[in-house]
Each structure stands twice: as C-alpha cells, then as structure tokens.
Design goal:
This protein has about 120 residues and is mostly beta strands. The chain is built from no helices and eleven strands.
C-alpha cells in the first residue's frame, strides 16, 4: 500500500494550493481518509478528514472555511484545496487512511512540504 502526497510548494500569503494524495493498492472509497500537518519543531496535527462514503468531513478549527477536503474515487485520489494561506500554514502535510473510524490511521503518505511566505 502506498499513499503518494504531492502538490506542495512555495506560495505567498493569501495564495492557494491543492494537495493530492494518490493511493495504490488501496481503494480510497473503502477507507476513511485524512490530512495532517507538522510544522517545524511541532507535533503533527490533524487538518481534515473525510469518511469512506465521502458524505462527512471534519476540519481543524484553524483551517475551517479556508481548506476543503475531497476525494475522486475514479482517480483513487484525495485532495486538500487550501486557500487564504498564511505563514502559520507552513508545514509538511501528510495524508493517511484508515479502515475504521474507531481506530488509528493504518497507512501514511510520505508528506509534501508547503511553505507560505509573508
């Protein structure tokens, strides 16, 4: 199983980026998926999640109204659309997948770096 996160880069404050998480040997529609981020010197934090059916999403307070999580089952890919970015959003972003909502995440991607300049 592999989760490949991509789409990170350098963006100015107020800008937008879209992250992708492509899955192989895993069908995203069968998993609950999530995005996490880890800023330099800090612990990894939850960003957003989406249920297997895609019918329910959840966001950290810090990103509500600015980030949107989605999935394209045909492409077996999950996305994180980020807008109104601020330097506080600078972090390595990780995607993850789990079979059960009651359990921890089973699989993690390698991370993609997002740097927001002021």
């Amino acid at each position: 199983v592999q989760l490949q996160a991509s789409g990170g880069g350098l963006v100015q404050a107020g800008g937008s980026l879209r992250l992708s998480c492509a899955a192989s040997e895993l069908t995203v529609s069968n998993y609950h998926m999530g995005w996490f981020r880890q800023a330099p010197g800090k612990e990894r934090d939850f960003v957003a999640s989406i249920t297997g059916s895609g019918g329910s999403t959840n966001y950290a307070e810090a990103v509500k109204g600015r980030f949107t999580i989605s999935r394209d089952n045909a492409k077996n890919t999950m996305y994180l659309q980020m807008s109104s970015l601020s330097p506080e959003d600078t972090a390595v972003y990780y995607c993850a997948a789990r079979r059960r909502l009651s359990a921890g995440y089973d699989y993690w991607g390698q991370g993609t770096l997002v740097t927001v300049s002021s």
